[in-house]
């Protein structure tokens, strides 16, 4: 489904969809009321996971993204990160393809090249890591999260742009 076109743009372009857009106004986005805070580090983390926790928590805390209720999610990120690192090291050591033997239909042993099952494990961990990175806004696409809480504004982005244009042209309402 495509992104909804703002009503102001529909008005400016004289769109035939304006009547429908006015009949079904956009829903307001809800913003969580959680205050930025650093969660407590679980005791169950390994020393390597604790190091990842400290580094990641420092980064997220500077960006005011972390709240007290994010501890479990951050712990899961640290565990997944360390597991991915270990599996990737083993995969590099073993190789992506390995030689194995099988018995063919006539009962003779044959040697074949097969994909290392660890490739799938590493791929799955990478997907999990990417989803956790998205949750914390640590991907390039999600990095738009500002350090300040969003300001309440009555004007939409299109109205702000029109107001700036009017001001630049010296027009008053």
Tell me what you see in this structure.
With 173 residues, the protein is mainly alpha-helical. It has two domains: 1-26, no CATH class; 40-141, no CATH class. The protein has helices at 7-13, 18-23, 47-62, 71-94, 118-135, 157-169, and strands at 97-103, 109-115. A hairpin with a 5-residue loop joins strand 1 (97-103) and strand 2. Helix 3 (47-62) crosses helix 4 and helix 4 (71-94) packs antiparallel against helix 5. It is elongated, with a radius of gyration of 26 Å. Residues 145-150 have low confidence and may be disordered.
Question: What is the structure about, briefly put?
Answer:
This protein has helices spanning 7-13, 18-23, 47-62, 71-94, 118-135, 157-169; strands spanning 97-103, 109-115. By secondary structure, the protein is mainly alpha-helical. It has a two-stranded antiparallel ribbon with strand order 1-2.
